Amino acid sequence: MATAGTSARRARLQSTDLLVAAIALVVALRLTAPDLLSRPAVQAWSTVFVAVCLQALPFLVLGVLLSAAIGTLVPPSFFTRVLPSRPALAVPVAGISGLALPGCECASVPVAGSLVRRGVTPAAALAFLLSAPAVNPVVLVATAVAFPGDPEMVAARFLASLLVALVMGWLWTLLGRSDWIRLPEQAPGPERGRTATFLDSMRHDLLHAGGFLVVGGLTAATLNVVVPRAWLDTVADSPVLAVLVLAGLAVVLAICSEADAFVAAGLTSFSLTARLAFLVVGPAVDVKLIALQAGTFGRRFAVRFAPVTFLVAVTTAVAVGAVLL
């Protein structure tokens, strides 16, 4: 338990340090090399970076507030009361509940673990884990704002993400084994009021997700300014390679789902289908989610669930993109 707590503190410190380091670097350059910041390439880079972060920040904050409020106010017995007892029927109900119970990826994993502890079938818990951060209203509105000229991206993201959640839930009912999931024992902690729990949850999610947003903004700005346009065009012109590159980028960047649409919108060299793959893969499987899933459900679960989710997410995004985009 101490090791897990230490890792969590380190991850939170590293994510917030990214923002502090970026600000410190800009201030230092402004004082020591003002001419450098006035160069066109640097100004273009900073414009893209600031635009991505500022556009995404309100949605990130709103998503964190809703997630913290739901985690504090929704009683633990809610899901066991509303979900059908049959796994095949519980999966779509849990998947659709992501519309009403939004949360970021960081929150959905422990919530899914607590659902399994309370007797909810793992298939339904996993469907909720995948749908909640991907199809909730905050994410859909953010996607609409990020792609004002392409409203079909909202429908495509919703449909593809929901299908991924349902397919993975039903696959678990067919192929999943109970011994693949090993939930860690939870030591009883001190009783805390709802207000303190709400503030702690909001502070944790905002600091953690904010750091990854900075990483996404830095990457989008760098791809648009530093990476040679010819290289980007070569990758983007290949439909298969473009999808695989952005899907892999989504796994590595691990951007919060409330903010990833603004990063995807900045990748203008790539097709809408490739950017849809970025938006579908990110909330379903990325490096931080794999770590969280391994810590919550065990390594045997993570090494099986993450690769299959990646394949299902990419395949579904391409199929939905071919129809709607």
Automatic annotation (TrEMBL):
Keywords: Cell membrane, Membrane, Transmembrane, Transmembrane helix
GO terms for cellular component: plasma membrane
Compartment list: Cell membrane
Transmembrane segments annotated in the record for this chain: 44-68, 123-147, 154-175, 206-227, 239-255, 301-324
Membrane topology classification: Multi-pass membrane protein
Keyword Protein transport found: no
Family classification: Belongs to the UPF0718 family.
Listed name of the protein: Permease
Organism for this UniProt entry: Goekera deserti
